[in-house]
Design a protein that fits this description.
Blueprint: H1 6-31, H2 36-44, H3 63-76, H4 78-95, H5 104-111, E1 117-120, E2 138-140, E3 143-153, E4 161-167, E5 177-183, E6 189-191, E7 206-215, H6 227-264, E8 266-267, E9 272-273, H7 274-277, H8 279-307, H9 313-338, H10 340-344, H11 350-357, H12 359-362, H13 367-379
Bound molecules: flavin-adenine dinucleotide (FAD).
Length: 384
């Protein structure tokens, strides 16, 4: 797989978005069908290894490129963009594994475009508090055995591997977790139910069960009890950036779909389009555009903070996802209102954008938790 620069990555994503994702997005949403074709194309284009170093065959690009690619995908299919985001977060976690973890082949397969991964953190027992798994790994010779009920796993049943959290065998605190790489074919791992969400219907975010899975020591990604630190350092910044990028793609699509409707739908008795006729609708479209560009600026700012970390970086990581979740709901809700019964009756793509936009705020860390963490930071209180 050749090395790509930023522009090639974004134009590659755009081609896939236009040719593969856009024609199928509506039906995949309706049928809750996972876009294997889309993921295969992302692999062929070298986008699955976007952030991996050239030494394993990746392109060595950074957070800014990841955000731009994710936004382009989300403009046409937020489900695929979320699958991509989870994969990139899992890949970053695998790539930062402790030195004795056996991850070289997995990273090469990812860079070669033949391996999709994802995060399996949330558990039924601790719900959105993904930092506190209920399951606890049990010692099994030099490895461990894990039984865990993972409540939502994007790409469940479609990924080639899962980055799984579980309390360390001797962990004392609720956050003393360890992360493991679990191959899809490991005995005891299964999809535990269907995925029939309100939105992001095509991303297979089903529950998964680990039933006494035997995990050899070489698949332990972090030192014992250091899973939480890896979540904070490797997964969280990219997850929050990527979630904001998905929100931005949804907002851009909502602005474009609203503009198109306001230009094409007409009051024939007045001889004007909706947009020509109603200043209130123009005002709503203007407000949607302002919020969308504001989110874009926030994402650029977060990418800059991740490229050049400084004191305010963690604050920006938390703020950007919190803001993005609310902006996406606000902009797509305004689009629903501006496009009236036509949007409500699914004559446009707006109701899908509206449903998809509601996932971001409830995906952990949820908007509520982010606001709580931000205020704790400002008050100088411990975060967890
Ligand atoms: C489409 C989708 C894909 C997902 N994919 C993955 C995945 O790939 N991997 C994964 O690990 N998880 C995944 N999740 C799970 C996700 O990250 C959350 O864990 C899940 O959405 C939480 O839902 P819940 O009902 O358990 O929330 P609950 O924990 O029951 O929260 C209910 C409400 O309480 C609020 N709340 C919770 N705690 C606090 C607090 N301390 N302060 C203030 N308010 C609080 C929440 O914001 C929420 O509004 C996915 C979820 C969705 C919807």
């Amino acid at each position: 797989m050749g090395i790509m620069n930023h522009e090639a990555a974004v134009s590659g994503a755009k081609k896939i978005a236009d040719k593969v994702l856009a024609p199928a997005a509506r039906q995949n949403d309706k049928d809750a069908r996972f876009s294997s074709d889309g993921v295969d194309e992302l692999g062929r284009a070298g986008l699955l290894g976007l952030l991996l170093p050239a030494t394993v065959g990746g392109s060595g690009l950074g957070p800014r490129s990841f955000a731009a690619v994710t936004t382009v995908l989300a403009e046409v299919d937020a489900s695929v963009a979320m699958v991509y985001l989870m994969h990139i977060c899992a890949t970053a976690t695998i790539a930062s594994a402790r030195p004795d973890a056996a991850v070289a082949q997995t990273l090469e397969d990812i860079a070669a475009g033949r391996h999709l991964s994802t995060l399996a953190f949330s558990e039924s027992g601790s719900r959105s508090h993904f930092w506190a798994p209920i399951s606890r790994a049990q010692r099994n010779g030099t490895g461990v055995r894990i039984t865990a009920r993972k409540s939502w796993v994007t790409s469940a049943g479609h990924a080639q591997s899962y980055v799984v959290s579980s309390l360390a065998p001797e962990g004392k605190a609720p956050t003393d977790s360890t992360l493991y790489l679990v191959p899809a074919d490991l005995r005891g791992l299964s999809v535990a139910g269907p995925w029939d969400g309100l939105g992001l219907r095509a991303n297979a975010s089903a529950p998964m069960m680990l039933d006494d899975c035997e995990i050899p020591p070489e698949f332990q990604l972090t030192n014992e009890g250091e899973g939480f630190q890896a979540m904070l350092n490797a997964s969280l910044p990219l997850f929050n950036l990527g979630a904001a990028a998905v929100a931005l793609g949804l907002c851009r699509a909502a602005v474009a779909a609203t503009a198109s409707h306001l230009k094409s739908a007409r009051f024939e008795h007045l001889g004007q389009s909706l947009g020509e006729s109603l200043p209130t609708l123009r005002a709503q479209l203007g407000a949607m555009q302002i919020d969308t560009d504001g989110l874009s600026t926030r994402i650029d700012d977060l990418a800059d903070h991740l490229e050049r970390p400084r004191d305010t970086t963690m604050l920006r990581v938390l703020e950007t996802k919190a803001a993005a979740g609310e902006i996406a709901i606000g902009v797509t809700s305004a689009a629903m209102r501006a496009c009236g019964g036509a949007a409500f009756s699914k004559h446009t793509s707006i109701e899908r954008l509206f449903r998809d936009a509601h996932a971001g705020a409830v995906m952990a860390p949820t908007s509520d938790v982010l606001r709580e963490l931000i205020s704790r930071m400002i008050l100088g209180m411990p975060l967890f």
